[in-house]
Design brief:
This protein has 296 residues and is mainly alpha-helical. The protein is 60% helix and 4% strand. The protein contains 9 helices and 4 strands. It has helices at 8-27, 41-68, 72-81, 84-117, 169-197, 208-218, 228-235, 246-267, 276-290; strands at 123-125, 137-138, 142-144, 152-154. A 4-stranded mixed sheet has the order 2-3-1-4, covered by helices on one side. Strand 2 (137-138) and strand 3 form a beta hairpin. Helix 2 packs antiparallel against helix 9, helix 5 runs antiparallel to helix 7 and helix 8 crosses helix 9 (276-290).
Amino acid sequence: MQKRVFSNKFIKIVFFLLILLNFSSNSFTQDNQDRSVSESRIKRFAKKSLEIIKDKAYLMVPLACLALCSSEQTKNIILNQLRPENLVKNFATNYLLTTFESTTHELGHALTAKALNNDPINIELGTKLEKSQEPLFKSKNLQINNLNLESARARFRIPRDPKTFVTNKNKLAACYLGGGFFSLFCHYIKHLGSKLVTDKQTNFFLDKHVMNQIFNVSVPIGTEGDSDAALLWKNCLNIPGKIVKSETLDASRTILSLLYHVLIAYKTRANPDANILEIMSIALLNHELDYLNFHA
């Protein structure tokens, strides 16, 4: 019988290093894609879809190869996650959850402004349109520009004293924070409902959408307009402190999510003898599927 050149463990390590190399290059770099307004929606949709297939293929192919070298239980878990119907399910779920997050966030801003300043509810979903473009839907209180519903805005007036016209900073702060806290409240209601109908045990605070809202109301992210906390610091607290770069925050969220998925993969492993490579592979796969989304 011919002796194998490489051991099973060596092959696992090689595939795992390929996975880590691709993961690090995709997860900790800023997306500088040029979103040309001259391209049609269909063309942008097709181009982004191809980019997703390419980016995920570089990660999923070595993951699948690693699965074939792993135990039967781990192999079944990984290959089942990579089935087309499960990938479509993950995409649809993440798209709906992202839409839920952005909609509840902007609704929180609008409802707070309505309660404190009697502003009409005015919410815009989707990336901003050029003058020549038409929205998909428009009504008195809601406008939907396109299907990239992760991007959203709520318009409200700056609350001022009716006599002196001085900005009421307490009300303005409440309008800034209302979006994040209302979205967190809605996510917690969703979390409780999910626990009632399923046996799946999840940590509320390590959900990526919950982390987004917590960071949004607590950390001044990126430039002055990138987070509600940045606007709060500048316009209400007059704190000139340094703004946290969005890349730093993205890396922190990625690390927290990875640690969470490693813990879950370890606690729910089907094979008690699964080694660290198998556990990390499942964690990386679940992390990637958790973030499977695109911007139309």
